[in-house]
Structure formats: structure tokens, C-alpha cells
Amino acid sequence: MATRRFVTPLVALCLAAAPLFPSPSTAQPSAAARATPDTAALRQALAQTLGEDFQIVRHELSSGLTERGGVFWLVHARPMRSGSFHLQYRYEWIDRVRPRDPLYTHIKHESYIRVGERGCWRRREAKEVCLGDTIILPFVLNDYRGHTFTLAYRGPNTVMPTTPLPLPRNLVAATAEVHNPAAPQLEYLGSHASVMLHRVLGSTTVNRAEFEAVAPGRFNLAVRRHWPGQPPMPGSPGRSVPVIVVPRGQPVTVLLASEQVTSVHETGNFASHTGSQYLTTPLLLQPGDRISLEFSQLTVRGRDPTPAEREAATPVITRLPFHLDTTVRFNAWIADYLPRRR
Fold it and tell me: What average pLDDT does the segment 183-209 reach?
């Protein structure tokens, strides 16, 4: 029997990522930032830092996300050995509001990357990759100076789960009344509901549908709630998520999903901590991976939910041609490197 594990997708349908800098008002790139930076010295310094742990396979500049930091240097790195790694880079901060008395002098970015053996189970957070995969590392450039890099090997990768997480206890198993047009590639396992009570009378019931990848394929999946007594609304599947199922062990390219950002003053008198998220919408799966997609929220106020409102709702599943919207999140950074249809 094939091993299965639960994969938590980064598929929360929000459009905003965490800010990359202490203040949006100071994050606007100058004219110098819009010029093409010389990345030769940066590449040499980063390659020396990565050593024999990661190989730089390509690098490119991106300046299309001005509201999220301006000019980025995107480095495609391929791990050469398994383990757990801590990557840091820092640069001198330019305070455009208080240039004579800057609030910060340096910005430090930190990320953690776990590398498993070839053919390992990947995690959707893009912090865990397999040997053979490529991970895109974003570095903020703009017109900042003094970029330095460090990479620390933290030991073997011992946190990767090897057994599947159990399905929710309140899962309502799939029935014949739920038609799943994506069944050849994505099996529908059932749905479940979770109830969040409000401090005052009322609650929000969240419904999720559980799926398991079974075979390679490339499509968009839309899941919406079926309301009893109302026929399905043709032509209105709602918001969809791109899904790509690759053969087990096929190398893929992923984007680093998150990092910690620390803004510090050289005197040590002040520091702030934030986080950056480079979220994308496609789900990269292997046979055996499970995903949980939210398809309904029902909020009642001024009273407790009825038993019917606490129960899992019935989903309507729609399969659509594959489409990736490169205008949302950071999809543009990975669009050209997603697995193609064979």
C-alpha cells in the first residue's frame, strides 16, 4: 500500500502578503533602484557562501512588484545534500523619511530550508524540498548597499514526517451525490465542518473539502457550497485554485514561502521584527498528498448555531482548464518554471 501523508496547502484565498519593510512609506524605491543593478559581485559572494551545499543554476532580476519592495534578485538554487539550513542576508537600510537620524541602520532577513532525500515528501510551505528540486530565493536589492550572506548547516533533516496525519474525526465520507470531475487525478474524500464560537452570541462555521492526489494532471479546481433545495448555478464555479500533480519523485521548482525580517540600529538600542511571505496560488502535489480546501463560511449572530448549521455542508466540485493568474501574489516568479503537461 502506498504511503500517504497530509499536506497543508498554502491556499488561503487572501491577496495580501506581509510587508517586507518596517514602513510602507519608506519602502518606495528611488530612481537608482529602478536602474539595473550589477549582480556579478553579489553572485560571487553568494556562491562562496552557499559553497558545496547549494548550486546556483540561474538568477534574474524582477522589478514588477514595486509596492512590495521594488527590485528583487531571484536566485534559483539547487541543494546538493540533505539537511537543515539557516540562510541569512543583511544590507544597509536607507531611511528616506529621517536620513539624518535613521530609525534603523541594517535589515536582516532569515529563512530556514530543510532538504530531504531524492523523492521525499514535500511540504506545501516550501521550506522543505528534495534533492533534485530547485528553490527560488528572493533577495531585496533596490538601491541598498552592503549585502552580505551567511549559510549555516544546522544538522540532519529529522523533522520530516514519514507517516500520514489522520483525517479529521468529523469527516463526512464522500457519497455518490457529490460529483467529482477531477476524480482521475484528485480523489474527493469527504467534507467536515469546524465551528468557531464568538465572544458574544453567534458563531462561524467553516466547511472544508478533503482531497487526495492519485495521478499526474494539470487543471484548476473550484469548490463551492451546495445549498439544499437550490439547483447548482451553471457557469459560476467561483474562485478556483491551480492544481498540478506530478509523478512521485519528479523534481520541481518552488518559491521560498516565508522569512523573518529584523530591522536593527547599529547602536543596539532599537529593533523590530516582522515577516515576509512570498505566497503563490498553485498547488504542487504528488500522488498520496492530501489537501484541504475551504469552500464555505456561515456566520450567525445573536444566537447559537443550529445542529444543521454545525454539520458539514455538501460541496459542488468543478474542474476547469489550467490557468495561472500572474497578477496576484508572487505567481509571476514561478509561472515559467511550473511543470508542463507531458
Answer: 91
Q: For residue 11, what are the CA distances in angstroms to 18, 27, 111?
A: 15, 27, 21
Judgement on whether residues 194 and 130 belong to the same structural domain of the protein? no
Over residues 120-150, the pLDDT tens digits come to 877 554 457 889 999 999 999 988 999 999 9
* Helix (H) or strand (E) segment spanning residue 106: strand 106-116
Q: Which comes out higher in pLDDT, residue 339 or 268? A: 339
- The amino acid at 146: G
Range of the domain at 133: 15-162+249-281+326-337
Q: What is the mean pLDDT of the chain?
A: 82
As a whole number, mean pLDDT of residues 30-38 equals 53
Contact between 178 and 262 (Cβ < 8 Å): no
Q: How far is CA 116 from CA 54, 144, 254, in A?
A: 13, 34, 14
Max alpha carbon distance in the chain (Å)? Answer: 69
Establish if 292 belongs to a structural domain: yes
The reply to whether 77 and 185 lie within a common domain is: no
Residues 232, 267, single domain; the answer is: no
Per-residue confidence band for 238, with pLDDT thresholds at 50, 70 and 90: low
Cα separation of 299 and 204, whole Å?
A: 4
Asked if residue 4 belongs to a domain, the reply is no
pLDDT at 69: 58
Gap between the terminal Cα atoms of the chain: 26
203 and 302 together in one domain = yes
Shared domain for 87 and 25, answered yes or no, is yes
Which three three-digit cell numbers place residue 286? Answer: 504528488
Residue 7 domain flag: no
Task: Say if residue 24 is in the same domain as residue 43.
Answer: yes
Are residues 192 and 272 both part of a single domain?
A: no
Q: What residues are paired with 240 via a beta bridge? A: 222
With a pLDDT cut of 70, the percent of the chain lying above it is 80
Number of structural domains, the chain? 2
Question: What local confidence, expressed as pLDDT, does residue 11 receive?
Answer: 33
For residue 266, report the phi and psi dihedrals to the nearest 5 degrees: -60, -20
- Residue 204's φ and ψ, nearest 5 degrees, are -125, 125
